[in-house]
Amino acid sequence: MIRTMVQLTEEQLKALKELAKARKTSVASLVRESVEQYVATATEEAEREEKRRRALEFIEYIDEHPDEFRDIEGKTDVSVNHDEYFVQASEE
Description:
The chain is mainly α.
């Protein structure tokens, strides 16, 4: 392990010491655990944001190229108006 120095507020240190005592572990262990959780969460959020960005890019592409995304009847708005089309089909 590598030793590092971290500055905490009095309240943060007090809370960590109380939690460490309750869990019968060290403050250092809690800090390592917290950093590990933060890094994992940040990585998941970055991956989620990348997926969101790619989805929005694809939606933009669809909007710019509607002729490529038609159903068999030539409609391009089925995903938006599917309920209306379902009602129409049910009445036929």
